[in-house]
Amino acid sequence: MNGRDQPIGIFDSGMGGLTVLRALEARLPSERYLYLGDTARLPYGTKSPDTVRRYAIQASHTLIDRGVKLIVIACNTASVALPALMEALAPVPVIGVIEPGAAAAREAAPSGPIAVIATEGTVKGGAYVQAIQAAGAIPVVQQACPLFVPLAEEGLVEGPIAEAIVHRYLDPVMATVPKPRCLLLGCTHYPVLSNLIARTAGKDVALVDSAATTAEAVAALLATHDLERNGAAGGARFFATDSPDRFARLGEIFLGRAIDPGTVDLVDLGA
Amino acid sequence: MNGRDQPIGIFDSGMGGLTVLRALEARLPSERYLYLGDTARLPYGTKSPDTVRRYAIQASHTLIDRGVKLIVIACNTASVALPALMEALAPVPVIGVIEPGAAAAREAAPSGPIAVIATEGTVKGGAYVQAIQAAGAIPVVQQACPLFVPLAEEGLVEGPIAEAIVHRYLDPVMATVPKPRCLLLGCTHYPVLSNLIARTAGKDVALVDSAATTAEAVAALLATHDLERNGAAGGARFFATDSPDRFARLGEIFLGRAIDPGTVDLVDLGA
Fold first, then answer.
1. Model's pTM, two decimal places?
2. How much is the ipTM here?
């Protein structure tokens, strides 16, 4: 197996990163994918940066041991560990979801304001604010939406409960002056709520989801490293650190297609 | 320090078990308490029994190393590991929340039906059904309420969103025929939602929360082993496996009193 035929590794704390895999399968259908969800230890959003970094390095080594040519950190929370991961995993290229999402938001609203919605951990870490403002002082507002992940995992993405919760978090953000012109979904779970989020935010607000923008960035990185796989359709295999059956069942919400339970293996990350 | 003066250890996956500590402090104010919340690895409700057992044994050994005289497994999910814990931790007595809750529910509705609401993991494990029916064939219905824990942790315990979510889970259960006469809160997070749950269930339904019944069972166990502490007020100290500051801040919702951040230490369970 030469470099081109090696799979792309995707890591997330759970199933939310499957929205990134979904975008990758659409953008790069010839690639082979190995997805690892650390379902035994999710959620990462409430964990400290040290703990998240340690878990992300363990998971990435597990993927490298299985021969991946590139690693996508498809978890906004774990993306805070990106510099440490790049150093620990070199020479395997590593890409996160923060920078592609921030770049797309800047493009959508060059003079802002940009609203970022994410988990409590991502908001506190401020990674999106830093990435957006690295290219210039654009105004950014942030809002943590702790109930979005459980809503998404319940498949409760429409209806009065989901609507009330989306309003609860979005109304204060959209009432800021000047009104945000771009809303960045800073958590990989949120794309399954994107129809409702878009309706609530209003049609004059550009919605940016980091899954699609990350898939574009992966395509560019593969081209740079001359690592694109050609030919027949690739396919995906999955590892979960707990409850592979539950992963296959609930994962469908995020991946947008059924997951054969026979393609999901239990893996022990060790510590 | 003789046996009587040693602290009582309380273990939970996170902060929900603080409702049990609250009941213990009310029932046994002279005791000293060591509470351990495995906040780095919560929630346990979606983890497999093997993983939960391994984590519970690690946490219990950490408490025993600090000299506790008795361990309360204040976590419904981890209570499924009770037989294994009793064997692994002997001669330190271990008590869970399932059997006291089941006994109180049988007392409240001797011929049933009893409705049990709990996490997905507890419902699947069926521990309450087994414990209730061990004393006779009483009809039991179960309902998993996955959004209750995030609601409680958001402090969102009243208002239209909380009401809609409580109705979503309780209405189908209360519509079963014959109607349940007792509703057992089978998760330590749920007591903070108990006012709303009681209103939704209706006043002809007896509400049983396992925190209060567990405190009674602990009092009885201490008497049996001649281990009751006498004299001045005891007090509590806390260990969290991640984010002690967040533990102190959010824990107040469950403990019903402020937690001094200086009484919360970070602890590493090792694996």
1. 0.86
2. 0.80
